[in-house]
Amino acid sequence: MRVILAEDSTLLREGLVRLLAEEGHDVVAAVGTAPELLKATDEHRPDVVVTDVRMPPDHKDDGMRAALEIRERWPEVSVLVLSQYVENRYATELITSTGGKVGYLLKDRVAQVDEFLEALERVAAGGAAFDPEVVRRLLTRTTHVDPLETLTAREKDVLELMTQGLTNARISTQLHISQSAAEKHINAIFDKLGLSGSTGVSRRVMAVVRYLGS
C-alpha cells in the first residue's frame, strides 16, 4: 500500500519508514509537521496516512486536526493516528467522521509490530482499529450510561472488542464462544442502542458513538 508518515520524532519516523519498506509498502512521503502532512496528502493521495497527534507548528493537536481535515477533504484516504495520549474530544470526532477507514493506537502498540501492521492493513482495507486503552478511556468518560446499564456483562465484553475493530470471528475466538453466539450478542447490542436500522461497519462504530454521547 502507499503510505504517508507524519511524525516529528526523526528517530521514530525513520524507524517506521524502514519497517514499512521491509514489509513491502511504499512510503511516498515522511514528514514532520502538520502542514507538510496536508500538502503531501494533496499531492500523493495515499492509501493510508499514519500521523501523530501533537506535532509542529504548535506542538499541540496539530496532527489530529490535520487527520480530521484529511477525512473531510479526501474521504478515500484511510487515517491511522498514533499518540502517547488519548485526546478524548478529537478521538470522538475522528470516530464519528466516518464509518470506517480510521484507527487510533497508542504509541506503545507500535512496539508490538505484528499488531501495528495488522491495524494498519485493517484501516487501509476500510475497517477500523482502536487501541483497547483508547476505547476504555472514551467509554468511561461518557455520562450517557443508560444504554450501558441495559447490556449484560457478556455484551459489554463483545462491545469492547467490536470497538477495537475486531471481526465477529475474532470476537468469538477472543471470548471462547461460537461465532453465532457472538453475532447474537452484537445484534442484541444494536437493538438496545437503537441501531437496528443501521447497516455495515458504520453500525459498529455508531455503537461507540452512542456511548460517547456525541
TrEMBL record:
For the modification 4-aspartylphosphate, the affected residues are 52
Give the protein's recorded name.
DNA-binding response regulator, NarL/FixJ family, contains REC and HTH domains
For this UniProt record, the keywords arranged alphabetically read as follows: DNA-binding, Phosphoprotein, Transcription, Transcription regulation
Q: Which InterPro entries match?
A: CheY-like_superfamily (IPR011006), NreC/VraR/RcsB-like_REC (IPR058245), Sig_transdc_resp-reg_C-effctor (IPR016032), Sig_transdc_resp-reg_receiver (IPR001789), Tscrpt_reg_LuxR_C (IPR000792), WalR-like (IPR039420)
Query: What species does this protein belong to?
Result: Lentzea jiangxiensis
Q: Which is a GO BP term held by this UniProt record? A: regulation of DNA-templated transcription
Q: Which CDD domains has this protein been placed in?
A: LuxR_C_like (cd06170), REC_NarL-like (cd17535)
This protein's superkingdom?
A: Bacteria
User: One Pfam family this chain carries?
Assistant: GerE
- Record-annotated HTH luxR-type domain positions: 144-214
Q: Which GO terms describe its molecular function?
A: DNA binding
Residue stretches making up the Response regulatory domain: 2-122
